[in-house]
Design brief:
mainly alpha, 20 helices, single chain
Length: about 425
């Protein structure tokens, strides 16, 4: 069943592999998204303010940047088996430890769990690509990731009430990591020791972006991720300050995230095949502009409508990955290219959640922070319109190195 080079799925039935991918992918978002609806409660409990909240929301994005930039090194030195178990162990450990000490431990635990999430997001596509039936597993991976994000948003407030506090409500998500470890081991996938072939690390990310003329794509990826993580971290607070209950705010965010499931399944193939991907990137980015504008002007008037519009806009993430995938396929070293675009992009994105916390600290209400977010969304739209077309030099570089076309592009579908 597996591709000859991967050695990943041979001892595993395909049905079992689907279960493994689904259970593992469920770990990619709940530990992060569950914090947003209880962020004000957490910071109040620690006697901290908006600056600390900004650090909490920015920590996962920095972790994603680190794992994205180090992806080629990780994939060249870590077997799939060891990497999967290590990533799940980091997620479980971080989520269990973070709520039970002081604020520094909470931030550190969040960062450790996010490193695990980033590593898992690097390795799961390797499993998917090695299965021989990529389409079904990509759909499973995407659906489980989006479902995990939605559940994290929607369930944390009810769990807080049911379990008697936010600490247990946040700790509970570590159970998903334990379930994934059990699924990996029982199916046999956890006993397969394989390492992706043909992965090299040459040049720093800035040099890669300059050589492939892809700085604009990295900028767009960073801006859309910045908006997304600001929404994940801060939108519950915006809604609660506007008079919406914490439970309802989490529900709106869950609905917002669920919209990404059908869009992620249906639209990216169209973008990948399009001669004008920039139109798709800019069009979806305009929905982001409209959604942020709605929350800025009248957050409590129609939160359902604003959530639906913003949810469509934030789905541009999957479109951005499609463009990265296509562009990476035309470069001699696709994994290095994807690592540079996403790593630099996440570094740009990490500024957003912290900056919003800082602005909120000195601003009266949410008008100024949301105005800044609106400006970023507008800049994202222009960046999308400008970066959707592949530079001619990239294709030329690809043509001059035909052998490089065989380098695996497993990591271009990372989230």
């Amino acid at each position: 069943m597996a591709a000859p080079d991967s050695g990943i799925a041979r001892p595993v039935t395909f049905a079992a592999l689907v279960v493994v991918v689904a259970v593992a992918a469920l770990n990619l978002r709940p530990g992060i998204t569950a914090v947003g609806p209880v962020l004000d409660t957490v910071t109040t409990q620690y006697g901290a303010g908006t600056r600390a909240a900004g650090i909490i929301t920015a920590a996962p994005v920095f972790a994603f940047a680190i794992t994205s930039l180090l992806a080629p090194l990780v994939l060249s030195r870590t077997s799939v088996r060891n990497g999967l178990f290590a990533s799940l162990a980091l997620i479980g450990f971080g989520l269990v430890v973070r709520p039970w000490a002081d604020l520094a431990i909470f931030v550190a635990g969040t960062f450790v769990a996010a490193i695990g999430v980033g590593l898992l997001a690097v390795l799961l596509p390797v499993v998917v690509r090695g299965s021989g039936r990529t389409g079904i597993l990509v759909a499973t991976f995407t659906t489980a990731l989006q479902a995990g994000a939605a559940i994290g948003f929607a369930a944390v407030v009810p769990l807080t009430h049911a379990l008697g506090g936010w600490r247990w409500a946040l700790t509970l998500w570590a159970v998903l990591a334990v379930a994934a470890v059990a699924a990996l081991w029982r199916t046999g996938l956890g006993r397969v020791d394989s390492r992706p072939k043909g992965i090299r690390r040459e040049g720093n990310p800035i040099a890669v972006l300059r050589r492939t003329r892809s700085a604009g794509l990295a900028l767009f990826f960073g801006l859309q991720a910045m908006v997304a993580f600001v929404v994940i971290g801060w939108l519950p607070s915006v809604l609660e300050d506007a008079g919406v209950s914490a439970g309802a705010a989490g529900g709106y965010l869950g609905l917002l995230t669920c919209l990404g499931v059908p869009i992620s399944l249906l639209v990216p193939p169209l973008v990948a095949a399009s001669a004008h991907p920039a139109r798709w990137l800019a069009g979806f980015s305009l929905c982001t502009v409209a959604g942020v504008l709605g929350f800025l002007v009248a957050p409590a008037a129609a939160p359902l409508l604003w959530s639906l519009v913003l949810g469509v806009g934030l789905s541009v993430f999957s479109l951005a990955l499609a463009v990265v995938t296509v562009r990476a396929g035309s470069t001699p070293r696709p994994i290095e290219f994807s690592s540079a675009v996403q790593g630099v992009g996440y570094l740009i994105a990490a500024v957003g959640p912290y900056a919003v916390g800082l602005i909120r600290r000195f601003a009266d209400g949410w008008s100024v922070p949301l105005g800044v977010l609106l400006a970023i969304a507008v800049l994202q739209t222009f960046a999308g319109a400008a970066c959707g077309r592949a530079p001619e030099s990239t294709a030329a570089d690809s043509g001059s190195n035909t052998a490089a076309q065989n380098v695996p592009d497993d990591q271009t579908e990372r989230r």
